[in-house]
Design goal:
- InterPro entries: NAD(P)-bd_dom_sf, Sc_DH/Rdtase_CS, SDR_fam.
- It holds the Pfam family adh_short_C2.
- This is Tropinone reductase 2-like protein.
- Helices cover 45% and strands 13% of the residues.
- The chain is α/β, with parallel strands linked by helices.
- A 7-stranded parallel sheet has the order 3-2-1-4-5-6-7, with helices on both faces.
- Helix 2 links the parallel strand 2 and strand 3.
- It is globular, with a radius of gyration of 17 Å.
- The protein starts with 9 loop residues before the first strand and ends in an 8-residue tail after the last strand.
Length: 256
């Protein structure tokens, strides 16, 4: 999906070395954006950056930044590098996140909860805070990658669901506060999408097909389908949309 008005925009996509973030970065590059990609795996990051440059409408260089976004100094350095390279920021996609398949009675539940809140909620909050002065200047936007689990109960991922529900509320608050300053803030809430994040969460491979078989669209989602929605929300086609939580779940909420 292509959007003419995205040409030459500066886009920062966190967690873009795989999955939804990778698909999103590549799609922005196809739309003529100047893209900054981030991740912890340097090899995968190099591969994504190369792909972005190959498909870039204007053959823009793709800026790479490797680091752990749970560290405050890394977030600061990421914004500084983006501005140093491109001089501005138009679109921030808070996609980086982590997950854990666990029960509240598990011995390591609280440790996992604290990690998820730091990565899935605190990091996007701090990065948005650092980016907002530049987004106000550019009349830009933020898209947070949340989850359908923020609005429905899925067994054994309570900590993850809590972190994403907090991210949705952050979306609404930022939209309300910064809309008058010209900044739109929205989230996308994907359903079951097979990504490296879910593999790291110890979820059985079969669970995606099992969970999605009874929903109206009876298959897991694709990263590219979520990327299309993110680019739409970043474009002028959604100029009247802010504070929205855009559910893309194959209808799973209808049968929850």
């Amino acid at each position: 999906m292509l959007f003419d008005d995205l040409k030459h925009k500066v886009v920062l996509v966190t967690g873009s070395s795989a999955g939804i973030g990778k698909a999103t970065a590549i799609l922005f590059a196809k739309n003529g954006c100047k893209v900054v990609v981030t991740g912890r795996n340097q090899q995968r990051l190099n591969e994504v950056a190369l792909k972005c440059e190959e498909v870039s409408l204007f053959k823009y260089k793709c800026v790479k930044f490797a680091g752990d976004l749970s560290e405050d100094e890394t977030l600061k350095a990421l914004i500084e590098k983006t501005i140093a390279e491109y001089g501005k920021l138009d679109i921030l996609v808070n996609n980086a996140g982590d997950g854990k398949y666990s029960c509240i009675l598990d011995d390591d539940f609280i440790e996992g909860y604290e990690l998820l809140m730091r990565v899935n909620t605190r990091a996007p909050l701090l990065l948005s805070r650092m980016a907002l002065p530049y987004l106000i200047e550019s009349k830009g936007c933020i898209i947070n990658v949340s989850s359908v689990s923020a609005i429905r109960v899925i067994p054994s991922i309570m900590a993850y669901s809590m972190s994403k529900a907090a991210l949705d509320m952050m979306t609404k608050h930022l939209a309300a506060e910064f809309g008058p300053k010209g900044v739109r803030v929205n989230s996308v809430n994907p359903g079951y999408v097979k990504t490296l994040l879910h593999q790291r969460s110890n979820l059985p491979e079969s669970i995606y097909d099992e969970l999605s078989k009874n929903q109206p669209i009876s298959r897991p989602g694709e990263s590219e389908e979520i990327a299309n929605a993110i680019c739409f929300l970043a474009s002028s086609k959604s100029a009247y949309t802010t504070g929205a939580c855009f559910v893309i779940d194959g209808g799973s909420c209808l049968v929850a």
